[in-house]
Amino acid sequence: MCAALMRFACAVCLRWNNKLSQQMFPRGPFSCAKDDMIHYLRWTVFLWIVNSIPFTSGMTVNERIDHTCPPMKLEEKWHTNVNIHREFTGFDLAETFLLRKGTVTDNRPLLRLGSKPLFKPTESVFPDGISHEYSIIATFRLRKTTKKDRWFVLQIFDKSGDSQVSLIVDGAKKTVEFLAQGFLKNSLLYVFKNRDLHALFDRQFHKLGVSVESNAVSIYLDCKLIERQVTAERSGMNVSGRTFITTRVEDGRPVDIELQEILLFCDPRIADLDRCCDSSGVTCEPVVTHNPTAAPLVTGYLHRMLSMPAQLPTDRCHCPTLKGDQGLPGLAGHSGQKGDKGDMGLKGDPGPQGLPGLKGDKGEPGQPGPGMLSVEQQAQKGDQGLPGIPGEKGDAGLPGQPGTPGKEGKRRDEPLGVTRQQLEHEKKLESSVWA
């Protein structure tokens, strides 16, 4: 509509030039009266167009605003940080996730993240989705125990569990990653590993900004552009899934950081226009706001137009040029220099117990212990020892078994000097012993 109005104004300008040429070369009375009447009619139409320009321009701006993004109620500092004169639109994710304010550190009110996973249905966070171009702003400080963690600033899943948008901070690698979903449901990953990002992990407050445009993604740290990468075409938003904020990749729990704000603006310029006026040591001049109206615009324009002397006719009218179509993405830049060697990674967890090994062969005999002889030494025959000491006289032995009876001898006379009584007495003794 604005372009049509500009073309109409150019046509009026050409007709006005023709009128000037006719005044320099007068014609008949009837022709002059007719031309004068047409001249006054055109001036009437032109003044109506000029009075309607502010109204129609406002309509054009309103038509370009993404109606999926509601107005944001932000602190006064944002009107100083960003030098724009229209209302902010987008989402205050801390307010959407009902994060309560905790302690105040360095004059900064902090938000309590709690211990439960921070997620909500996407349709309750972004009822109509998000703009195709936007900015993400998060101000936080890492703690000593979490500066090596890998966590999501923002992650949006679709109903099938695939990631549509992810903004990841990797403390171990000191990188920032942006992941989006392409038209073919493929993952588009862009890793930012500029050395200037290392300051994000020094356990001080920093503002991380991300500008997502239709064909590029830019990373800002403390309102300074760090790196910009050209991107492929991205698919639209599906609100049937879930949305997470400040969540650890490892276990899905909230990351232990000191969070001040997390905002999503429906304008990719916010990350670039932010001046970080609320940071320590930064001073910004106040922004002068204007509220133009139709009457001063028309009055000033007519005053300047009527005060200008008549000029000679020209061949063409100098109309303001219209904005052309967006150009094609530029060529990829040269590859950067090889970075420094990273820090040594953390020690991994013990691995699972291995399977039992095969049975080994029988080992060789070991060496004898102290005071012990080897088997070979024990088996050898020793030298003959010295004669022993004669033993003591032993006790009397038991009587022996009776002998076999002897052959009967020849009978002879009794020996001399031996009486019959003695012989009988010896037989009795002998029979008592054998009994």
UniProtKB/TrEMBL annotation:
<keyword id="KW-0732">Signal</keyword>
<keyword id="KW-0130">Cell adhesion</keyword>
<dbReference type="InterPro" id="IPR048287">
    <property type="entry name" value="TSPN-like_N"/>
</dbReference>
<keyword id="KW-0176">Collagen</keyword>
<keyword id="KW-0677">Repeat</keyword>
<feature type="region of interest" description="Disordered">
    <location>
        <begin position="324"/>
        <end position="435"/>
    </location>
</feature>
<feature type="compositionally biased region" description="Basic and acidic residues">
    <location>
        <begin position="422"/>
        <end position="435"/>
    </location>
</feature>
<dbReference type="GO" id="GO:0007155">
    <property type="term" value="P:cell adhesion"/>
</dbReference>
<keyword id="KW-0379">Hydroxylation</keyword>
<keyword id="KW-0272">Extracellular matrix</keyword>
<dbReference type="InterPro" id="IPR013320">
    <property type="entry name" value="ConA-like_dom_sf"/>
</dbReference>
<feature type="compositionally biased region" description="Basic and acidic residues">
    <location>
        <begin position="337"/>
        <end position="346"/>
    </location>
</feature>
<protein>
    <recommendedName>
        <fullName>Collagen alpha-1(XVI) chain</fullName>
    </recommendedName>
</protein>
<keyword id="KW-0325">Glycoprotein</keyword>
<dbReference type="GO" id="GO:0005581">
    <property type="term" value="C:collagen trimer"/>
</dbReference>
<dbReference type="Pfam" id="PF01391">
    <property type="entry name" value="Collagen"/>
</dbReference>
<dbReference type="InterPro" id="IPR050938">
    <property type="entry name" value="Collagen_Structural_Proteins"/>
</dbReference>
<keyword id="KW-0964">Secreted</keyword>
<comment type="similarity">
    <text>Belongs to the fibril-associated collagens with interrupted helices (FACIT) family.</text>
</comment>
<feature type="domain" description="Thrombospondin-like N-terminal">
    <location>
        <begin position="84"/>
        <end position="268"/>
    </location>
</feature>
<comment type="subunit">
    <text>Homotrimer. Interacts with FBN1, fibronectin and integrins ITGA1/ITGB1 and ITGA2/ITGB1. Integrin ITGA1/ITGB1 binds to a unique site within COL16A1 located close to its C-terminal end between collagenous domains COL1-COL3.</text>
</comment>
<dbReference type="InterPro" id="IPR008160">
    <property type="entry name" value="Collagen"/>
</dbReference>
<comment type="function">
    <text>Involved in mediating cell attachment and inducing integrin-mediated cellular reactions, such as cell spreading and alterations in cell morphology.</text>
</comment>
